[in-house]
Write a structure and sequence with these properties.
Nucleoside Triphosphate Pyrophosphohydrolase; eight-stranded mixed beta sheet; 21% helix; 31% strand; globular
Length: 217
């Protein structure tokens, strides 16, 4: 797997580990709670959201990077989009961590034993009715991967310092179902990280900066 080019200065690995583990242990108040914060066309459904989990994979390079997937173009939902590996929490999954690790193994062939779980970020509510828990995990620099061709077209890396830099968090607006909707976008080397994936990274950036945890009572 190729190492990403240099972008914004990323934190060194020791300081990254310390900040991630310390902040994820503290209660937080997310910057963005879900798609409804962006003026979604309809109010949240009365039915409880479907629990889901994603793995936020951090590669333990000297300059840490984030591993992301690009979905295959034929999928019924989120076709061609950039995403974290993940999906709904099955009844057999004991918790969100187990679900995130299982989904990562199914989608990109990542052995769960190679992941050191650092903690979970703020839950995000999607407009499609899912409550997504991001599970942050530390991976070896070059883990063995085997992509599921039915779900994942490619994987790529982005410098962690780049995606956590608020200067790269673009808030855009577009029409959806007859109403204007706002959403976050992070552009990297011709790829657009947007929607729930970008919003969860915005929340993680706020948690790491202490802006969420320091406000929590």
């Amino acid at each position: 797997m190729a190492r990403p080019g240099s972008g914004a200065v990323a934190p060194s690995l020791p300081s990254l580990l310390e900040r991630l583990e310390a902040r994820l242990r503290q209660p937080g108040r997310p910057q963005v709670r879900g798609d409804w914060d962006f003026g979604f066309a309809e109010p949240p459904p009365d039915a409880p959201p479907v629990p889901a989990a994603v793995l936020v994979p951090v590669l333990a390079r000297a300059e840490p990077s984030l591993l992301l997937t690009e979905r295959t173009p034929h999928l019924r939902r989120h076709a061609g989009q950039v995403a974290f590996p993940g999906g709904r929490i099955d009844p057999a999954d004991p918790d969100a961590v187990a679900a995130a690790l299982r989904e990562a193994e199914e989608e990109v062939g990542l052995p769960p034993a190679l992941v050191r779980v650092l903690g979970s970020g703020d839950r995000y509510l999607t407009g499609t009715g899912y409550a997504v828990t991001p599970v942050v995990g530390l991976l070896p620099p070059d883990p063995p991967l085997r992509l599921n061709p039915h779900e994942v077209a490619a994987v790529f890396e982005v410098p962690l310092g780049f995606v956590l830099d608020p200067a790269n968090h673009q808030l855009r607006e577009a029409e959806w179902q007859g109403r204007m909707r706002r959403f976050y976008v992070i552009e990297w080397n011709g790829r657009s990280i947007w929607g729930a994936t970008a919003a969860m990274l915005v929340n993680l950036a706020h948690r790491l900066a202490g802006e969420a945890g320091d406000d929590a009572g």
